[in-house]
Design a protein that fits this description.
Organism (chain B): Shewanella nanhaiensis
Shape of chain A: globular
Active site (chain B): 10, 37, 130
CATH topology of chain B: Rossmann fold
EC number (chain B): 3.1.1.61
Catalytic activity (chain B): [protein]-L-glutamate 5-O-methyl ester + H2O = L-glutamyl-[protein] + methanol + H(+)
Number of domains of chain A: 2
Number of strands of chain A: 10
Distance between the termini of chain B: 12 Å
Order of helices and strands of chain B: EHEHEEEEHEHEHEHH
Number of helices of chain B: 7
Strand order of the largest sheet of chain A: 6-2-1-7-8-10-9
CATH class of chain B: Alpha Beta
Strand content of chain A: 15-25%
Structural class of chain A: alpha/beta
CATH class of the largest domain in chain A: Alpha Beta
Radius of gyration of chain A: 20 Å
Domain CheB-type methylesterase (chain B): 1-183
CATH superfamily of chain B: Methylesterase CheB, C-terminal domain
CATH architecture of the largest domain in chain A: 3-Layer(aba) Sandwich
Helix content of chain A: 40-55%
Largest interface: A-B, 24 and 27 residues
Oligomer: heterodimer
CATH superfamily of the largest domain in chain A: Vaccinia Virus protein VP39
Shape of chain B: globular
CATH architecture of chain B: 3-Layer(aba) Sandwich
Helix content of chain B: 25-40%
Order of helices and strands of chain A: HHHHHEHEHEHEEHEEHEEE
Chain lengths: 276, 199
């Protein structure tokens, strides 16, 4: 047997071990991306194989923290796909304005860029004061960064362009304080955001959400876990609540499909039907 | 027998793909999975254009999609395209690899792990070396490696890098690539069959 033929077995064994030892269940992740990340960690740590990493994962909790961090690295940015934010602002917010209190859940918020983007738009539309944004991720390291709201200043130029394309009404520079090469998001945005640890793999629904944002998280899950998560969203949304997914994600293969109508196909916005 | 071809292409890709895909017959017995480097905000012009010209069906790769023969799947702009071991497609927004998303290496590595010696890897024109490592892995898993002849490439950096790093099976001029892949519907290609039997 060639070493590469053992890899599938090694990965599965590693995921079983992690579940047994720490309760994190990566067994229903899409394996190809996960395998790439695992191999990257093996290489970075000068280990010869996935099997060699297994004892470190099992016995060295600091190493496991490092591993966990690797597993949740995604590339996020402010106003990613500006046209999606524009659509939200023009069409979804109009609906949200009919409620006296609005709850929004960013599931898998990573380092928080999209959460602040959302808060900025809500503010400009006069909705932020009545809104509570729950921003969750299973990775505490990412949540720390999100909560601090400090990002590299050199990224602000690109974000400013996206902000304008997304229909920004003011000056983007009003929303952060630039200092020593970093940009810190202003407190008036933060006070409406609650950051919390929540694990889509195993935790419970949030109640009474008007809008759930979960972009480019489901692409990392297999169909079984996707269904679990989408059911969680279905149960967390109010009747006629909105769900925003990533621009390649769909409900087409999910059992919750009958519970949603398509609000905007292009922007991947779906709407919870009345108690189906 | 061979089940799939992975193609990696960068600068000059439209012309190269236009020279290859339309030559494949509608009942081409392999699946074709393509990473073409392009700007993140690109629309799906490429998929539609190639689909109009080709007998095989050309479409954008969707997450969870089952890979079928006679189909050409193109990585969407701004996402890595990977192949799961159950022969379905998946996407990721992991950091760029070789400054590229989608990255050819990412597709080839996952394809090699899935198809092993039933895979053909093909590197075409391009201005960087993405894909070389992936093509090497295709070979390591017993697959078949083809590179476009550099002198027929609009930009020869990528094919040259692949030839330098990998012990490739065939270097073929662009004009002959489509016919080569389509010959005898490929699955009965004698040289290939012998190679696979010897594995």
């Amino acid at each position: 047997m060639k070493p590469e033929d053992m890899q599938e077995f090694e990965i599965n064994q590693l995921l079983e071990a992690i579940y047994f030892r720490y309760g994190y269940d990566f067994r229903d992740y899409s394996k190809a991306s996960l395998e790439r990340r695992v191999l990257h960690r093996v290489q970075q740590s000068d280990l010869g194989s996935i099997s060699e990493m297994l004892p470190r994962i099992m016995h060295d909790t600091e190493f496991f923290e490092l591993f966990l961090r690797d597993m949740s690295v995604t590339v996020t940015e402010m106003f990613r796909d500006p046209k999606v934010f524009k659509k939200l602002r023009k069409e979804v917010f109009t609906q949200l304005k009919t409620y006296s209190r609005v709850n929004i859940w960013h599931a898998g918020c990573a380092t928080g860029e999209e959460v602040y983007s959302m808060a900025i738009m809500l503010k400009e539309e006069g909705l932020l004061d009545r809104t509570r944004i729950y921003a969750t991720d299973y990775n505490n390291h990412s949540l720390d960064i999100a909560e601090k709201g400090i990002y590299p200043a050199e990224k602000m130029k690109g974000y400013t362009e996206s902000y304008i394309t997304a229909g920004g009404k003011a000056s983007f520079a009003d929303y952060y304080l630039a200092k020593f090469g970093s940009a810190k998001m202003v407190e008036s945005l933060k006070e409406h955001i609650t950051f919390a640890n929540h694990n889509l793999m195993k935790d419970q629904p949030f109640a009474e959400m008007h809008l759930i944002v979960c972009r480019n998280v489901l692409i990392y899950f297999n169909p079984k876990l996707q269904d679990r998560v989408l059911t969680l969203f279905k149960d967390s949304l109010i009747s006629r609540g909105f769900l925003l997914l990533g621009d390649k994600e769909t409900l087409d293969f999910s059992q919750v499909k009958p519970s949603f109508e398509t609000f905007s196909k292009e922007e991947r916005i779906f709407r919870r039907m009345m108690y189906v | 027998m061979f089940e799939a071809i992975v193609i990696g292409v960068s600068a000059g890709g439209l012309k190269a793909l236009t020279a290859i895909l339309p030559v494949l017959p509608s009942d081409f017995p392999l699946a074709v999975i393509v990473v073409q480097h392009r700007h993140r905000d690109s629309d799906n012009f490429l998929d539609r254009y190639l689909d109009d010209l080709s007998s095989v069906r050309v479409k954008e790769a969707e997450p969870g999609e089952v890979i079928l023969p006679s189909y050409v799947y193109i990585a969407p702009a701004g996402y890595h395209l990977l192949i799961e071991r159950d022969k379905t497609l998946s996407l990721s927004i992991d950091p760029p690899v070789n400054f590229s998303i989608p990255s050819i290496d990412v597709l080839f590595e996952s394809a090699a792990a899935c198809y092993k010696n039933h895979l053909i890897g093909l590197i075409l024109t391009g201005a960087n070396s993405d894909g070389s490592q992936g093509l090497k892995l295709v070979k390591d898993y017993g697959g078949y490696a083809i590179v476009q002849a550099p002198e027929t490439a609009e930009v020869d950096v990528m094919p040259k890098a692949a030839i330098d790093l990998v012990d490739v099976d065939k270097v073929i001029p662009l004009q002959e690539l489509g016919v080569f892949l389509a010959q005898e519907k490929f699955s009965s290609n004698v040289e290939m069959s012998r190679r696979v039997l010897n594995e």
